[in-house]
Amino acid sequence: MKIAAAAGGGLFLGFNWSDSTAAPVVVDAQQIAAGSVKFNSYLSISSDNSITIVSPNPEIGQGIKTAFPMVVAEELDADWKLVKTVQGKLDSAQFERQVTGGSGAVPHSWERLRKAGATARFLLVNAAAAKWGVPASEITTADSKLLHKASGKSASYGEFAEAAGKLTAPTDIKLKDEKTFRLIGQSVRNVDNKNIATGKPLFGLDFYREGMLFAIIQRPKAFGFKLKSVDSAAAKAMPGIVDVVTFENSVAVVGKSTWQCKKAREVLKIEYEKAADLESSEDHNRIFSNLMDNGEATVRRKNGDVEAAFKSAAKVIKAEYQCPFLPHSPLEPMNFFAHVREDGVELVGPTQTPDRARGEAAKITGLPPEKITVEITRQGGGFGRRLSADFAIEAVHVSKLVKAPVKVIWTREDDMTGGTYRPAVRYRFEAALDKNNELIGYKLRGVGINSGNPTREDNFPSGSVDNLLIDSVEHKSAITTGPWRAPITNFLAYAEQSFIDEVAEAAGKDPVEFRLALLEKAKKSPAGEVKYDVDRMIAVIKLAAEKSNWGKKKGVHQGFSVYFSHRSYVAQVGEVVVEKGKPALKNIIAAVDCGIVINKSGSLQQVRGGVVDGIGHAMYGNMTFKGGTPDQSNFNGFRLIRMNEIPEVDVHFVDNGISPTGLGEPALPPAGGAVANAFYKATKQRLRNQPFINEEAFKGIS
Amino acid sequence: MALFKLSINNRAYSADVEGDTPLLWVLRDNLGLVGTKYGCGIAQCGACTVHLDGKAVRSCVLPVSSVGKAKVTTIEGLSEKGDHPVQKAWDEVDVAQCGYCQAGQIMTAAAFLKEKPKPTEEEIVGAMSGNLCRCGTYHRIREAVKVAATKTN
User: Fold this and answer.
1) Where is the 2Fe-2S ferredoxin-type domain (chain B) (predicted)?
2) DSSP label at A272?
3) Is B35 close to A199, i.e. CB distance below 8 A?
4) The model's pTM
5) Tens digit of pLDDT for each residue in A141-154?
6) Residues 6 or more apart from A692 whose CB is under 8 A from it?
7) Where does a domain end: B57, B77, B97?
8) Is A96 exposed, middle or buried (0-12, 13-18, 19+ CB in 10 A)?
9) Residues B103 and B142 occupy one common structural domain
10) Chain B partners within 8 Å of A263 (Cβ)
């Protein structure tokens, strides 16, 4: 590759990546903290007072690289301005659960992070106490400073870092009273803001290495195909192409630039053969209706005698809801770097599960995991897609075959048509009301395509209905599926909250009052086990009703929705206004209980973003198939929500002092229901299928 | 392959590539300017937005052969010290979640504000709706453009 860069008119030849002025994509925490005293796996303090805090979990836009260090800094009483945060690489000896998924990082690490900070603070205080000859209990700390008020002695953390590092850490450490938090609960800006706004290399796609080759892979064009034969002669003759290699059902074009590989891939001649049914969306609709009535169901939860309840019912309400497959569409497409050497493997890239990538690399190369390093880059969104290791597996295969450092790059078309989608699901809900309009029976059947269990059988309204049956039927398909932000509940919550609205209406009750009455029942006389906190759910419902002035706004059609997922509780009110004869979604009011809010700014945006994601995909997200091939392959065919389509999102957090729970996902599930129920109020038509845009009732709506 | 001489961020560069190579990939694969992002390759998402003689263009569909003598500005060259009013507003409003689309958003906003220093909200929404943000930071993008407009004067 002949490349030249010139400055001020003079021509430099042989531009090389290591000369680039750009900062490296992955930074070494040890290097950053060089000369510092390491207190534990999370934090080091330098004699110049700078503090390095390592955030071990992958950052995909959920804000963990800011929030985790905030928790450590809080207990340390660190001056946030002196804190440098670093993305940790995979290190199973130092960290547990280096995963981004299930909104689980904060609940998992809350205590650990606090202890890491508190322990270092304890050691600093004790080092100062010994030097000053005063009781440790009389020393206070704030903003990276130690102070003994009586003697007037004070020092910076840096001055005592070395002495403190020599002391033995206590096994039991007292944590702060949460009411005294100074940093937690504040608005702290994303630690990478400046790097993001100036275009610094941060993401997996930004990682380049001298001598690295690029690979673009042709995967089977339909789900159900397998590779039969490859003629790569024409591709190999294209400029910049180094090799074309085949593994499993994939053909990798390896060359010196992304564009050259992409062009050469177009001239590959590949034959496929059928290995499984090549399904179309019409097949899926037929499969759904057949399995709904005739499928062999797995019972997920059963309370009371549901058949008897329906027999004795004064009124039965029944409705079906269906959602399509969805690609994750993170804006940074899948990509991964691998360098397979004889003595080890270097992996670099965007993954939500670095440990899985390492495990797969070990299997492919036969090398022990300790010979495999994984550097985690910042990630241009994940939404569950990067929980899979397929792209890392590909990079390892290709690097092993061509014996060179390789970066596998997926085009947008590859990313959208490459599978591991949100599974398509159809639900049938049935409710039985007695003559007093009390809900006495509830049935839910979910039919999913590669969905595993498409229900969440212990979520509300389970526990509040005496006679209940939740079951599911699975159809196995060649179309691959995987977790998609708020797995299953991303659609189930909408369907269930819309159906509850239908039942409330049939019972002649206000939707909020109806839900509250069910929750009161779950509290006073629960039907079976109740696996959510009834009081916390009631509290968010009441907060959302209060903040939205529920039922009292003239000319505003409000729809209600509430959901418990990933240990957090979120209620939302959608507001639709009819303008020039057309209903328009104007506002979403959200009430959120995720316990203690760590970073106010990050949390606020996480909820707003979750709502935008939820309503965007509910309104527009659609993936259909013909003969096993997706009909949509890029953002011209697959519609993502844009700025001119968003409502205002008003967010309110419950302040209850409970240990924090996840927030990456919980705001998404209730959004679709709040919108659908508000549209119903305005139009008297139910939206029972996603995307709403394809529903008759939604046509012509702004 | 042909040698293309380019003026990028007031520096002279040259790259030996095929003429149909999109400017995006020349910036990224050949010149080490990775701030400009690949999102869709078909001018639908705006992640690859750069300025060509001050106007916002989608570098993913701009063949390097058609750049000619036009001056290219990328996110790396928007300001010397990262203190362009739009960059400052993006930090102040704390816009980014994952951050991947934001270079394109910032370049779109900067070109827009140069043309329309005092935009209405409607004009902001109109100008920014061509850029996708998969995280859904649209409220803050809109706010940051407003904040930047107050800094530009």
Assistant:
1) 2-78
2) E
3) yes
4) 0.95
5) 999 999 999 999 99
6) A618, A619, A620, A675, A676, A679, A698
7) B77
8) exposed
9) yes
10) 18
